[in-house]
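pinging the channel bc i need a second pair of eyes. not urgent but kinda urgent?? the chain im working w is below, pasted from the shared doc
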Amino acid sequence: MKLRIVPLLITSLTTFSNLASAATEVTVPMPPDASLLEQRSMTLNLNTASVEDLMALPGIGESKARAIIEYRTRMGGFVEVEQLTEVKGIGDKLLEKLKTLVSVY
């Protein structure tokens, strides 16, 4: 009886250790932030971005993010990225920082 238990125990331990190591290799996608957007050459769509999405951009806090969404709602959406300068608190300098991170589509 003891001789049968040892191989079964070894097989079980090997199987479970493989499962444990496989589980540690799984990656969980993280929400995008500005550095991730830059690295992946992805852009944030100004017409669908949430307040939280916009706040991940450099120079955009909660009040500017809300102002962007208010402008978007009032105007029926953005046609071009340069319209950001029409949002209070966003000038040419900040627009230059954001141009590679945002888009309109």
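so Residues 34-103 form a domain with the DNA polymerase; domain 1 fold (CATH 1.10.150.320). and The beta strands are 44-45, 102-103. — does that match what u expected or am i reading it wrong
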